[in-house]
Amino acid sequence: MPDDRSFFQYPIFETQMIDLRSDTVTRPTPGMLQAMMQAATGDDVFGEDPAVNELEARCAAMFRMEAALFCSSGTQTNQIAIKCHTQPGNEVICDADAHIYQYEAGGIAFNSGASVRLLPGDRGRITAAQVLTAINPDDVHKPASTLVCIENTSNRGGGSCYDFEELKKIQEVCRAHGMGFHLDGARLFNALIARGETAGQYGTLFDSISVCFSKGLGCPVGSVLLGNKTFIARARRFRKVLGGGMRQAGILAAAGTYALEHHIDRLQTDHLHAAAIAGELQHCHFVENLLPVATNIIIFETRGITASDLVTRLGAQGILCNAVAPSRVRFVLHLDITERMVQQVIEKIRSI
Ligand SMILES: *Cc1c(COP(=O)(O)O)cnc(C)c1O
């Protein structure tokens, strides 16, 4: 079946809106749905779902890590990883804008009973020097610092990417202090494409990695957690305790395998689209402090209008986007946004 939306009658409401609220709004393509329909399935809690096993094996090989675990969401993979790396009363070090702190509903406290040390990074990126200063001394008064979490790309950082050399330095600090090193790679594939890096590079650096299939890769559901065999065996138990053990999950995993084959290289298109829209926003009277666009996310501050008023005005023009703070707006490019839609967005923002 050709991967062409017009060929396929979607049995759902077709919106006329250009939806730039998030890369999670993508719907499976005809080719992806076909792969899902053809998936060989079994009971994944018994370890008997061939499509889940295939996706996990592929991811592990791609990242050069020992094992992988298919989960329902990126929140679940991050929370399971944090649980595996910490004991109650330990402390997690991360950027103040990190998803694990900002958008996981207090999960670090709820699931792991751990505290968090927030660092003021540069657009979501922390440095080895900052991590060093945040590690608590071996003192009974202090929570033990046991885990450093990195987010690449950084969501609230406007899709910014880490410099791999800095990540190596942070890993050295983690090693020297016996701390775990976790990557929230919800959008890692965007970083790999933007930077010309490989998944294997990351797999050899981190103790655990979470990647999302429901963002830029265009899947309806799913994230994968990677680590060594012992880590993933424990993670499997925590997935169960969180109610995340799914049965014929191969239907979902097959979408993931399809996306690994078809939807990684095309992320470059989303990045070009983001750059084109940002190029226009730069000249708009209602925009200031446009963050540098590194991947598929655009974040700017509003001038002379509140973020929510701008979102309403753009909505009236058929463009959906998000107010991420009282005077901050975010656009996210993704698989369902065509070249033509990008041209429309540029024309509409020019006319505001
Ligand atoms: C979206 C996202 C996640 C996971 O979110 P879910 O909606 O739970 O899949 C994790 N980290 C970052 C940086 C994200 O943007």
Automatic annotation (TrEMBL):
InterPro entries: ArAA_b-elim_lyase/Thr_aldolase (IPR001597), Low_specificity_L-TA-like (IPR023603), PyrdxlP-dep_Trfase (IPR015424), PyrdxlP-dep_Trfase_major (IPR015421), PyrdxlP-dep_Trfase_small (IPR015422). One of its GO terms (cellular component) is cytosol. The keyword Lyase applies. GO terms for biological process: glycine biosynthetic process; L-threonine catabolic process. Belongs to the threonine aldolase family. PANTHER family: L-THREONINE ALDOLASE, L-THREONINE ALDOLASE-RELATED. This is L-threonine aldolase. It comes from Niabella drilacis (strain DSM 25811 / CCM 8410 / CCUG 62505 / LMG 26954 / E90).
